[in-house]
Amino acid sequence: MKKYLVILTLATATYFVGCSDQLDRFPVDSLVEETAYNTVSDLQFGLNGVLGSYSYNYIIGFNSIFTDNTRVGVDNGGQDTGFGQQVLNADTGGFSFGGGVLWNSRYSVINDMNRLLVAASSISPGATEEDTYNNILAQTYAFRALAHYELLLYYGIDITDDSALGVPYVDYVSADATPGRDTVGDVLAAIDSDLDQALALFPAGTNDINFATPDFVTFLRARIALETGDNPGAIGFCNQLIPNYPLANISQYLGMFNEDADKTEVVWNYDNVQGANAGINFFWNFSGQGPKWEISRELFGLFEDDDIRKTVVLDDASDLDDDRLVIGKYPINANTLAINDYKAMRISELYLTRAEAYAKAGQFTLAAADVLAVQEARHVGTPDPIDFNNNLGDAIDVIIQERRLELCFEGHRYIDIKRVRDITGEGIIQSEDLGDCGGAYPCELPASASEFILPIPQGEINGNPVISEQQAPGY
Amino acid sequence: MKLKLTWLLTLFMAFVMQFSFAQEKTVTGTVTTADDGLPLPGATVIVKNTSRGQQTDFDGKFSLSVNVGEVLVISYVGMKTTEVTVGASNVYDVALEADNALEEVVVTGYKGATNSAKITSSVATVKAESIEQVPITSVDQMLQGQAAGVNVSTGSGQPGQSATIIIRGRNSLNGDTEPLFIIDGVPVDQDNFRSINQNDIATMSVLKDAAATAIYGNRGAGGVILITTKTGKKGSGIQVKYRSLYGISELPEPKFNVMNTEQYFRFQRDLLPGDQLGDNLSDERIAALTRQASTNWSDILLRQGVTESHEITVTTGGENSSSFSSIQYFKQEGVTLGSDLKRFSFRNNFNANSADNKLNFSTTFTGNYSVSSFVVDAIRDTNTGGDLDNPFIVPYIGLPYLSPYNADGSINIWGTGPQADGGSGAYNADGSINYDDVDGFRNTPFIALNTAALGTDEESEIKMVGRIAADYNFAKNLTFGTSFGLDYTYRERLFINPPGSIRSFRTPSDASEFKGTQFESYYRDANFITNAFLRYDNNITEKINLNAAVFAEYNYANTQVGSFQAYGLNPALPTSGAGFTPGDTTEGPDNDEYNYIPDVGSSESELALGSVFATLDLDYDGRFGLSGSIRNDATSRFVENRDGVFWSVSGRWNIDNEGFMDSVDWINTLKLRASYGVVGNQNVGSRYQGLQTVNAFSGYQLGNAYQLGTLIDPAIQWETSNQFNVGLSFGLWQNRLSGEVDFYRNLTTDLFAGKLLSTAGTGSGSITTNVADMSNTGVDLQISYILLSKSATNNWSIRLNANANYNKNEVESFPGGFTGNTLRIAEGRPANTWFLPRWAGVNPADGSPLYLDTNGDLTSEYSASNAVYLDKNFDPTYTGGFGADISYKGFSLNSLFAFQADRWKQNSSLALIEDTSFTNLNLSTSVLNAWTTPGQITDVPALSNGSLRAVDGDRYLEDASFLRLRNVSLSYSIDKEVLEKTNLFTGVRIFVQGTNLVTWTKFRGFDPEGTTASTFFEYPVARTFSLGFDLTF
C-alpha cells in the first residue's frame, strides 16, 4: 500500500509546483495601459481612436428630429419618437444614434485626448518623426477646442455672456475630478489657447481636409465669433477663408452629396469609409430607405424647383404622390452601402455666417449680397435680388431660412433657431396643417422654452456634486 | 412505561445469560426492501455492540454465527435501520422500509454523502425520480418548483435553453447571480446543460446558506448546486435498462387575440382615422376578402414538435467495484420550424476499492455531442424580439388578409404582390421582386417563413465532463485524497444566410452581384480543477467525533474563440469555402468597391484560482454538532486585492436525541440549526477586471486605433455576502409529517455597481467597483406529508409535498440613490423595481388618456416627471412548488406545480399590437373597443390619439405571477411476479406525462415566465405531452 501513498504524493506535488505564478494572467485581446504607448505610431493609433469616436451622430440627428426639419416617417417603429415629441429632460439622455448623449460623448473623447497628450509627453520623437508627432499634438488641441466649443454651445447657459456659466473645461486626466461649470469667458479663452497651440504645431503645408488644418481653426473661430456676438470678428474670419474656397457649382454640389464625388467647398470633411462609417443615412432611414423620419412638408415646400438642393435632399425612394419624403442627403450610392462623409465645414456656411454678422452690424447690403451668392450657386435660374429694407428682422428671417435650405440635415437647425430667437421671437414652429406635427408631436416650442439649453445628463448630476447645483434652468 | 419495561427486560436477559451457556448457532436470512420485496444486496448486518457482521450478498442473503438473545442490526443507506433479537428461529428475513426524508443522506461540498441528522447547513435535495424521463432538456430548468428558495426562470422555449436560477433572492446587481454548478466534483459552465443527459443524475443538492457554501469561497455567494450522477451498487450484479420516450410539444394558448380579416378591414373602415387599405370597402367586399384569406398565422408558423429519446443504461456491481454506463439519443423539436436539439450522450462512472476498503478510486466521465438549430428568437445574439424574421412576432403582427398559401397549396415563403393591391409588397405588379418592400413590415410572416425555410443557424457541441479521484486511508484516522477534473466544451456555429433568401438581398450590399453570407465560429472552453486533501476522522472519546480536513485546489479556465464571415456565396456549393466570393473581388461603376472582404476574429482569455481551505466537524453524542470552514481564494481576476478569506461556523442541536424527548412519541425528528458565514462572488466584470486595458480597434478612416478600455478600479475585489441562517428540521408521527423551516438574512456588501463619476472630470460616467449593499431576508419552507403508505393491507400510498419561499430583497445602499430609468435599482427598495407614471384609463368625455400625477390626482398630461415608485418588482416575492405522489398497486400518479408570485413585467408585445398607428401590422382585438362617443366607458383611448406607446406609463405593466402544472405523469409498473414468469424483465414501467400543461396567469401573452423585464416576442416555453417506458432486464 505504501506505493499508493508515494504515487498520490508525487502526483499532488506535481500539480502544485509553481502554482502561485499561475495567478498572473494578462489579456490577449487588449493592451494594458502602462505599456500601450511607446512610439509615435502608437500615438497615431491613439489619434485614430480619438477621431474615430468623435461622433456627429447626436448633433446631426438632434438638429433635424427635434426641430421643424423632419416629421415622423411611415416606417417609424418608435425610433427617437421622444425627441420628435421634444421630450427633453435630464433622464432622456439616451439617443438611439449611438454614442450616447453629446455631453458624455464629447467629454469621453476629451478624456481620450487628454490621455493621449499625457502619453505623448513621455515620448521623444526621432528627427524624422517630428512633423508627425507635432501634427498629432496639433490635431489633438484643435479637436479638444472644437469639443469644448460644441459643449458650450449646447449646454452653456448663455454663450454670448462671458460671465455666464459655461461648461467645465477639462485639460487633465483624473480618476475622480468633479469639475463645476467654468464661465463662458474662461471656456472661450481656453478654446482660443488650444487653437493657438494647434496653429503653432501644425507642420507647414497641413491641408488635408479630412483632419484639422489651419483653415479648420479659422472656420471654427468664425463660428465662435458669430455665436458670441462678435460680428466684426466673424466677418474677419470669414474674409480670411472665403477667397480661398469657391462655392460649389450645381454639378459640384450634386457630386458633393452623391458618392462624395466633389469637395470643392469643403473645409473640414469627416471621412467615413467602409468599416468605419457613422451611417448618417440610417439616422432617418432603415436600410432600403424605409423612413423613420421624413423631410417635413414645410421644409420641402420651401425648396424651389430649380434649386439643386431640392434634388439632393430628396431620396430616390421618395414617393411624392404618396407624400413620402425620404431624406436623401446621404444617399445609399451606387454600392448601396450609404457611406457618406460628413461635410462638417463648408464654405457656404461662412457666406451665411458673414451675412448674418453683416446684418447684425447693420450692413444690410453686404448681407444681402452674401445670401444672393449662395442662392446663385444653388439655383439653375437667376434668383430675385434681395433687399432687407434695413430691417434686421427681415434680414434674419431670410438668412436663417437660407441656412435652413443650405444646411438642413447637417447639424445646424436647432442651433440656428436658438441663436436668433431673441431677434425673431420665435422658437420651433411646425405646421399642423401640413401634417408635420399634431397629436403627441407639439407644434410650437416657444422661444423662451428651457429646451434651448440642453440639460446636463442625470448621470453627471449624480456623479458630480459640484455641477449638480448648476443644472440649466427648467430641468 | 414502555421504556421501563424494556430496561427491565434487558436486565432480566442479562441475568439469564449469566446463568446459562451461550447458545451459539448460525442464523441465515434474506434482506429485502419492504417497498417492492426485492432482495437488497450490500446491506449491513451486524451483531449489536460487537464488530461481528457481514454484508448481504447478491441475493440479499446473510449467514452469521450468533448467540440467542443477541440483537442483529440491519442497515442500508436510505433505509430504516431495523433490529431483530435472535430467538429460537434460525431464519430471519428482514424487510427494510424506505427511510423518510430526514434520515436520508445529504450531499454537501467536499464531504460527499452525510447523514442528514449531522447536517448543520441549509440544503435542499432533488432526487432522480423527479428528474428522470421529463422532456425538459436543460437540467437547471428541472429545478423549477422543486426546492424552496430556488427561483428558476427560462428565457426561451428553444430546446436545451439554460435557465436562470436565483437562490434566495438576487444577490448581485451587476455580477453573476446564478449558483455555482458542480457535477461530480467538477465546476461546470452554469449556462450550458443542453448536451447533458438528465437521466444520469442521481441527486441534485442545493446548498443555500454559508455553512454549506463558504467552502466554495469566492464563487459560492449565489449558492451552489451539486449534481451527483448515478453509480452502480456494489454487489448488485449486472442490470440493463432500456428507456424510451416519445412526445409532442405545442405552444401554450395565447392570452391575447388579434383581428381576423373581417375585423381588420371593418376596423380600418369604421374606426381608424387616416387613409388605409380598408377605407372604402363595402361589406360585401370585406366578406369576399375574408373568404379569400383570414389567416391565423400561429397555425402556419408554429408546429407540433416531436421529442424522442432512447437510452440504454448498464449498471454493474462486483465485490470491490461498481459502474454505471449510459448512452442516450435524444431529439427535441421546438414548436416552430428550424428550432431543435439533437444529442448523443454517453456516460461511464466507475468506482473501485481495495479489499480492505482503504483505497478508493473513482472516475466519472460524460461525453456528449449535440446539434442545435436556432430560429431568430428574441434572446439570441443581439436580437431584440422585434426582428421581422422572429417566428414569435408573427402571431401578433402578421396581417390576416394575406394568404399563406401559393396557388398550388404549398406554403408561400416569399410574400405577395403590391401593397396597394392588398398584397404584402414582396412583388411588383410585373411579378419582379420589390426589393424595397420585400423586407418591410407587411411581409413579416413571409420573412419569418423564408428565413426558417432557407436559413441555417446551427451549433454543434462536444461537451465532456470528467473526473478521476482517489483517496487512501493510509494511517489510522487519516485519509489522503486527490482528484483531477475537466469541463470541456467545444462548439462550432454555422450561420448561413443563403443567396436568394429574402435576408440575402441586402447582404453584403444591395448592389453586390453575389449575395448571402456564411458565418462560422469555433469556441473552446476548457476548465480544469485539481484538488488534494488530508482528512482526520476520529472518535476522540465515546461521545465526541472529530472530522477535520485540509485542502489545496487549483482551478484554471481557458476560453478561445475564432470566427470568420464570408460574403457572396455560390448557391451550387453550399457551406463550402469554394463557394465564397474572393475578398479581393471589386465591383461598382469604377470597379473599386470591395463587397466581399471576409471578417475574421480570434480571441482568448484565461482565469486562474488558487485556493487552500479547511473544514472541521465536531459531533457530541449525536446531540450537538459544530462545523466550521475557512477558505483562502486567490484569483487572477483581481490584481491589488487578489486574496479573499471566506469562512463559516454552524451548529446543530438534535433535540430528538435528548433523553427528555424519549417520552415524546409523536416527535421523531427535531433539529435546530444555525449558521453564519461569509461567502464571495468573484464572477463580476471581465476576466481582467483588475487591469486597466487599452483596446485596439479600427478607428478613423479604418486606421489602427487605440482607445482606453472601460475605466477600472485597480483595487476592485469580490462581492461579499454575509449570510445568517437559522432552521428547524422536524419529523412528526413516525416522520409522516416532515419538513424544514429556515429563516435567513443575507447581507451582500462590496457589490459591484457603478460608482458615479463625473463624465466631464473623468471621461466615464461611472466606474464599476465595490460600492453597493443589498440584503435578502426570507423564509424557506419545505414540507412533506405521507397521507397513506403502502403496507400488507393497503395498496395505496399518498404523499403530499410543498415548498415555498418568501424573499424580501432590499438595496441597502447605492451610489447616487438609484440607477435605471423605468426599471430601477433604488436604495431602500427591492432591486429591479418599477418607476413609471401611472396610467389612469380613458377620459369618458373625450377619449383621451388619463394619468395620475405624483399626488395621485388625475391629469390628462403625460409627463415623465409624474413617475412614481409603484412597489412592483420584476423579481418575485414568492416562489415555490407543490405536488402529490399517489400510487395504487402498480399505478402511480406524480404531479408538480410551480409558482412565482408578486412579479411584474412590461408587456411590450401587447403594447405594439394596441398601437393603432401601425397600419402595416395586425392589431389586438381589444382596440375594437376604442372610445368613440362621449360618455363611453372603455379602457382603450380614442384612436385619434395615435400612438401612445411612448406615453403609456404603467399601462402595460402586468402581473406576471403564475401557477403552472409543471409536470404530471401517470405510470404503471408491471407486477414483479408477473415479470418473473417472463424470465426476461425484472422491471417494466410505462407512463404518460404532461409537461407545462396548464399555466394560470393574468399576463396577456403566450408565457408569463421569461427572463426579461420587458417582454417583446420571446420564444415561449412549450407544453409537452409524452409517453414512454422503462424496461429493466
Describe the structure.
- Chain A is mostly helical and 475 residues long.
- Chain A has helices spanning 2-16, 33-36, 40-52, 57-65, 81-84, 102-121, 130-155, 184-201, 214-228, 231-241, 250-256, 297-302, 308-313, 347-360, 364-378, 392-407, 413-424, 458-463; strands spanning 31-32, 70-72, 266-270, 285-286, 290-291, 293-295, 342-346, 428-429, 444-445.
- Chain A has a two-stranded antiparallel ribbon. A two-stranded antiparallel sheet of chain A has the order 3-7. In chain A, strands 4-5 form a two-stranded antiparallel sheet.
- With 1033 residues, chain B is mainly beta.
- Among the domains of chain B are: 2-99, Immunoglobulin-like (Sandwich); 104-229, Beta Complex (Ferric Hydroxamate Uptake Protein, Chain A, domain 1), CATH 2.170.130.10.
- Chain B is 8% helix and 46% strand.
- The longest helix of chain B has 17 residues, at 2-18.
- The two termini of chain B are 51 Å apart.
- Classes of the chains: A mainly alpha (475), B mainly beta (1033).
- The interface between A and B is large, with 92 and 95 residues.
Give me a quick take on this structure.
The complex is a heterodimer of chains A (475) and B (1033). Chain A is built from 18 helices and nine strands.
**Beta-strand residue fraction of chain B:** over 45%
The coarse silhouette of chain A is globular
The pLDDT mean of chain B sits at 89
- Major pleated sheet of chain B: 22 strands, antiparallel, barrel
Structural class of chain B: mainly beta
> What kind of assembly state do the chains in view correspond to?
heterodimer
The CATH H-level homologous superfamily of the domain at 104-229 in chain B: TonB-dependent receptor, plug domain
Strand order in the sheet with the most strands of chain A:
2-6
Number of strands of chain A: 9
